[in-house]
């Protein structure tokens, strides 16, 4: 038995798992409906219609089922399964207790669907019934048990990664452990991918959704993609969220697509399918629901300009709390409508911005590859530790927090203090030249506060 | 002047914490930022360890009230913290509350400066005024 299979047995022999049947699950994946695989939809989607995917997870089976019914009526392309925060932190006992309370009292005691607690036998009934691709949304540094349960349930898209699911969400979960736990995830996804259509992996580009410059987003997207492809994953989505400037989004999309292909080929994984996913605005939302709907609509237009393969939606209730299924379904319907009437888009290219961004990304990537460590994950680990990769507003203790960003007059995010990030002098000077740096730090802090809240 | 700062309790609101850090440095303080998700013991230990003059606790998600009550009992376990300026700011109650009532309550918990929903720079101006006044008093 391989080491991986031994580890799988340990992970799946858990008091919260009801007898995992390896042979039966393998058989299920082998014969599963192609409709369940988003990788299959990406492939057959020749006319390039952008797929629409909302967010959403409720504690009980019944409520999740009702949510999916609403989404189907709104003409959804991809269903979400958002997991509750106890399960995300591997606290299955609390998830179990809160699920029982939710079921008994008919109130939601969890902020998502406790997938491990429901188990794959139950969840699979729902997933196969709707026969739509489902995307697993979580935020888990140790997602080993979670993704085993997901794939056994018929969920064939797994979001996340060791960096993007850690740096925005955790203060002190060890990053090196996260890399190893995600290595397991990649290998399991790669192995299942040989049975039927590939399992799609998707990175979480929004990160902290707070003033992250495109070069940092792209570098992290590329690295998580490479860590996944080198384990044998054949279908991968890179992603990013609306940044605040249409031009910067278009440039980011163009550079990300080009470089994802370039680096995949560099490591001999050019046969993998790579897709682009765009998140509607992930920062602070307006309280006014009409404004929120306007913002969502504009995000859809930008996603089309960017040429995304899939868009992940928000709702007009974002500023208020966890959205109702009605608000959630409304966004899906509205987004589909906007996409249908949005025709004859012009093609916009900003060569200077593309060149500057490409130079930045390549310089940081080169610094990562030049780290003396023996494997890619260790190189990446060292680079985060030394601040070569620095994510603004990450709460994690390993993050350097030396980089400072600001918006220019066009609302493009610019780096005004690079910290240890090895961005070339030419790019750094270009960024700074776009901003008014004659102000004192107090005014700059006020500008940052303003820049974070631009959509409110 | 040394300041220990951080966000108290199971609160991961990092944005304000970074801005406080930046602003304090801009005003010339030496900052020891414990970041988000910090417990009271960690704050007091850090004050002892660094010999800080100011402890600036921030809170956004409504947990401050629960932790505030613990400050005095916990302080009795520490020596030589009487001279430390204790400051708290952010959203100090869940929902709406009477500002005067909140001031009074948090002062009774042992805080010298209470900034409930007050603009960051106004709060830091208050700290500076407080420190100046204290220096004058001790010189007099």
UniProtKB/TrEMBL annotation, chain A:
Membrane spanning stretches: none
SUPFAM superfamilies registered for this protein in UniProt: Cobalamin (vitamin B12)-dependent enzymes
InterPro entries registered for this protein in UniProt: Cbl-dep_enz_cat (IPR016176), Glu_mut_E (IPR006396)
CDD domains documented for this protein: Glm_e
Domain of life from the UniProt record: Bacteria
Any matching Pfam family: Met_asp_mut_E
Record's protein name: Methylaspartate mutase
UniProtKB/TrEMBL annotation, chain B:
GO molecular function, one term: methylaspartate mutase activity
Domain B12-binding: 1-137
Key words, A-Z: Isomerase
Domain of life: Bacteria
Known EC number: 5.4.99.1
PROSITE patterns per record: B12_BINDING
The protein, known as: Methylaspartate mutase subunit S
